[in-house]
Amino acid sequence: MVHSWHKEAQIKWDDSAKNWAANSKEMWDGGSRKTIIPFFVEHIPLGKVVDLGCGDGYGSLKLARGGFHVIGLDLSQKMITEATEKTKDQDNLSFIQGDLTALPFKTEEVDAVMAINSIEWTEKPLDALKEIKRILKPGGYGCFAILGPTSGPRANSYPRLYGKEVIMNTMQAWEFRQLAEENGWELVADTGVPKQGVDYTKLTHLSKDLQQALSFMWLFVFKKSENVG
Q: Keyword Methyltransferase, does the record have it (predicted)?
């Protein structure tokens, strides 16, 4: 059987939809994702946002409640079904099934994107970045989260060391930053989400790369360069 990266990823997330939806609220409200929306709002003005890899839509819902016009997109149709059901009474929010490397949006259609731990699940992250940049208006923003070295989900890429087919591209935060900056993005801000039990307030003397080494994930806001096509 021919390995199809994105088809296998779709199956995985279809299978995980119910469990993910059961735990999503806790992650966004009090867990590893609790700082993402405040970070997003701090650096990105109100406008039309696409939440790429939206899962069950709880993060999209929080953005919509904050005044953004939000479209959530996920590879998994079952995730989209979960998202639509739980947010059907919220204004300025809709969901669509789609692929990060072939986005169903017009060129320069949206003001911002949010992609939380979703770039890693694409076979060619650079293709995803280029497609995201395509749909953003000039000067538009992208908020990204990349899983850190201490993140358990990174284990999904481990079988590659045995030469097996995988559906996850692990990368270091510095690698993602370099990839973005070499391809038409300007860094606006970044910050870490520490591994549970790590107190970043006591580690301010450490360099950024050492802080990243202790991170569960690293958050970025980039701006689409108006000088690079």
A: yes
Model confidence at 229, pLDDT cuts 50, 70, 90, reads very low
pLDDT tens, residue by residue, 172-182: 999 999 999 99
Contact 80, 95 (CB under 8 A): yes
Packed helices 58-65 and 77-86: angle between N→C axes, nearest 10 degrees: 40
pTM: 0.95
Beta strands in 87-225 (DSSP E): 93-97, 110-116, 136-147, 185-194, 215-224
- Domains of the chain: residue spans and CATH: 5-217 (3.40.50.150)
Burial of 205 (0-12, 13-18, 19+ CB in 10 A): exposed
For residues 27 and 7, give the distance between their C-alpha atoms in angstroms, rounded to a whole number: 26
